[in-house]
Amino acid sequence: MGLRDVTGVFSRFFVVGFFLPSFFVVLTLGALFAKVDQEKPILIIGGGALLMGLVLVGLRDPVWKAFERIPPNGPFGRATRRYHDHVRETWWELEVHRAWPFIQPFFTDHERELNVDARSDIHFFLNCSLGAVAIAVGLCVDAKLSPVNDAWLQSLALALVALLAAALAYLGAARAVRPWGKFKEAAVVLHRFELYERVGLPRPEDEEQERAVIERLNAKLYDPDDEHGWAAHLGGVAPGSAR
User: Fold this and answer.
1) Residue 12 structural domain
2) pLDDT above 90 for 170
């Protein structure tokens, strides 16, 4: 988690994508295990949600990769692979996730807003899914600890509802990936010549030349010792936000 993550706590990306899911989770768990009808606990819950949101921002890349891989060949993983594969098939094997940090500086203000909005939506659903699982676990613990007869049945039933909500949020993330993938493909098409110039490659005059330029571009962006390539470092963005 970098300094930008801390100073950006009032951005839409953080508030929508991370703080709101965290606040709901902390509030729900607080209602299970503590009284929340007083001023002090509410302040504690707000601070806990802020801390949790910042932690999730720092973990956004491993969280994204985990959702891509679990479950294997799940809807979210298929959705993220689909737009990467489509760009590679359409634009001669261009590795969009490696080139993306170089393309973002060319964005207009409107393009930046579209990019942030789309990423916020995806992270919102991912974090809601994680949060719902955490709530389900809390409900199971509450069922085990509850001294009231038959209360454990209600807690377990609510835990199943929370797991259903987690599944729905996961599907929501998969759906939210699709428009972002289309936006990324459009951005690649629109700014690719600026990208070639930035990394010192000539502007192609036909399809054959562009195929050769993209091959050289991929070679420039590739680092065998780094899964995400040196583009992620020079671009100044976290790999998870460059997908």
Assistant:
1) 1-58
2) yes
Tell me, yes or no, whether 49 and 35 share the same domain.
Answer: yes
Give the separation between CA 122 and CA 28, rounded to whole angstroms.
22
| 132 neighbors 165 (Cβ within 8 angstroms) | yes
Residue with structure tokens 């963005």?
237
Q: Which residues contact 58 (CB under 8 A, 6 or more apart)?
A: 1, 5
Predicted confidence (pLDDT) at residue 153 exceeds the cutoff of 50: yes
Residue 25 pLDDT more than 70? Answer: yes
State both tokens at 219: 């070679």
**Same structural domain for residues 189 and 168?**
yes
Work out the pLDDT band at 173, boundaries 50, 70, 90: very high
Q: How far apart are CA 172 and CA 155, in angstroms?
A: 25
Residue 242 has what DSSP assignment?
Answer: G
The structure's pTM equals: 0.81
**Total number of domains in the chain:** 2
Do 206 and 94 sit in the same domain of this protein?
A: yes
Tell me: do 99 and 218 sit in the same domain: yes
